[in-house]
Amino acid sequence: MATFTEEGVPLSTLNPNYLHSNSTSHTWPFSAIAELIDNAYDPDVCAKQLWIDKTQIKGVDCLTFMDNGAGMDYDAMYKLLSFGFSDKRSLRGHAAVGMYGNGFKSGSMRLGKDVIVFSKRRNSMSVGMLSQTYLKETKASNIIVPIVTYNRVGSQNCIKPEDMASMQKILKYSLFQTEEAILSELKAINATKAKNTSGTRIIIWNLRRTESGKLEFDFDTECYDIQIPADMSDGTQTKFRRQERNAPTVPDTDFSLRAYCSILYLKPRMQIIIRGQKVKTQLVSKSLAHVIMDKYKPNFLKQAVSITFGYSTMGKDNYGVMMYHKNRLIKAYERVGCQLRANTKGVGVIGVIECNFLKPTHNKQDFDYTDEYRKTMSSLGAKLEDYWKEIQHKRNTEYPNCPPVEDVEKQPDQDWVQCDECLKWRKLPDGINIKQLPENWFCHMNPDPNFRSCEEKEEKEDSEDEQPTNKKTYKQVERRNKEMIRQQEQLQKQQQLMVALAKENETLQKQKELKRTRASVQLTACSGVPEQSPANSFLSPSSHEGSSSMPDNSTPIRKRTSMAGNGAKRIKTNCDLKANVKTVNNPNGQKSYNEILMNANTMAYNSATMENTETVGRKIEAAEHGSMVNSMEDNAQFETPESHMEFISERSSSPMLNFELFGEGESSTWDCVPPGLCEERLLLEGQAQQGHQMELLSTTRQERDNYKSMVDHLTSQVDDLQKQLFQKEVKNAQAEHGTQTDEVEKKDYRAQFQHVTEIIKKLKKERDAFINVMSVLSQLHQLNEIIDDLVRATIEAEECNCRYPGEDMAQNTEVILNEEDRRAATASNVKEKQGDGRNRQTDDHSSKK
Q1: Does the predicted TM-score (pTM) go above 0.85?
Q2: Are 415 and 432 contacting, i.e. CB atoms less than 8 angstroms apart?
Q3: 490: nearest Cα among 720, 785, 285
């Protein structure tokens, strides 16, 4: 039945089957154990040691977890066994791992069906049970969690009356049938310490088994370890080892709880003891070789995140990125970037990053597949490849003949060890082999006297400025190589272009010669009709009876072809002799004498024309196959206009005829070309061809000039590049020379400055002495003047007394005294002026200085 609030609103409840459904989020058993370890590590408990062991109680295999933390009272125990209560806060820089209030329930129910929790805090002790067996046997519709609390009264532990029902359920459905057995388990919590101790003890029974009935954990192969067998399955076709591994080698952390706990925290603050032996925890970021720091600053972060890259010192099979969240390992040996490819890139490289900006999943074995996560993984792959290339570049530069870095045995760049008493990490000096240290190490064993006591604060790690960073020198080398390759390609292209231009120029010259040859051959073919005498060119009227009389004028039948286009076209010879003979009706079918004569002339002309055509074809074929020399020799007579005129004059005597013969009773016309007219037309044709050839020559000359200008431009570019390279070399040489001579020049300048300073001091002393001498001389001069004035005054007074003997002596004395006062005032004014002059000289000297 549903339960309601006071206002009558139904309350949601949890069915007991949810305990199993909730536990299926842990597909890997070690992730369930990690949830229980996190509860002891969090700042609200802050345990220093955690013991994990396998035991038997009444013949039942059990897993036990015990810590010496703060313990729990009734309210804390109730929140632990309920869902969704999470009030953990960070304390003194110690961030809490738990955030959902579900880890204990999902982890414990993944390992077994039943769990009982014993906890002590100050003067109270609490016991709570979460059991699927109990809920199933009682057919409970809700999840019921019996909790009992002991309060210490004097020397006795008393149970609250309202908890008696819970105690009966615990005694009936747990492995402890008596109250004494429960109290003994409570006393076992941190029993080696004083009485007023605190801590928690968790016992899980009815452990999960495989189809064959075996436990899913292997407790027999290693007596000090808990392992996962390689061939175990729980019947759901789910391997207990991590499934996302596609590599042929599997890290030890996938099947060994000891190896997994050693790297579970980025900076461990708690000792973990598995089956009686301490786990050697390690600072992952401090156990690497060839360490280099890098930064990751995406757009969605205000501050950059530090990434540590280095080579694994445990072997080259375990490598990848270690991704932590709030000091807790989420993904171990996650291969990214070049490590996913089937090659040796990135082998042995480990990256360490704390991804507090990402959100882990509920089982804390992965991150939510968000856009931030995808960008982070992509950047990690790129930065890891940069690190690998940088180390390879340094290695090949410094030790070119050494084997690869991943195949060489390596030592960590720094050695850190944890004190077993105060759990503080101490940095050891170089040269100490950490493998030879004793099993239990304490601060008083530290060689460094500054950190030889547990009361001393933990030594600070190297700041980011002190740690080596990835300078990516290989990229600078790659840029220089690319620039050199680009310049070489440009030079090759320029050379290829120059070769192509030369070939094109050669081809154009050949085409030019070929066109010239064709034009010469065509002129030869046009003028190559066999010469005929005038007797053969005209028909005499007395040669046969019935023939018609010969006309006085004739018309040419030759048709000229116009020269068009850019190239010289082959001239069609139109020297065909047309003979249109119209005969009279001849019933006997016999031909007249005129017909026989014209047929004979036509046959002779056709044979001559065929010979000329074959000769022209052979010459053109020879010219097209590259026989330019022979064609030029055969047609050397056409190279100049004078040769063309000679050829035309030689061929001008051959008349071009056109006969039209008619039979008897009809008029017949004999048309012939006068010699003068034929020569004129041939002359015009030769001039036209000559003009066309001149156009071709000018076009070719222009093209040649264009190509020449292009070649000059490219040559100037090559010269500029060479000058720039030479200037860079000169600057580099000057810089090297400057660095070599800088210290010498500094020394010379310093010596010169000291020498000049001494000279100035001497000059000052001499000036002061000279000023003193001048002042003394001026004073002496003034005294001499006063004495002279007094002498003169005395003489004047004596003269006055002699001149006026009756005057009062007092009056003379007063005059003398007034004269002395006036001279004294004059002397004081002179001294003031001299003092002002000396001050001005001092000011001028200081300004000059």
Answers
A1: no
A2: yes
A3: 720
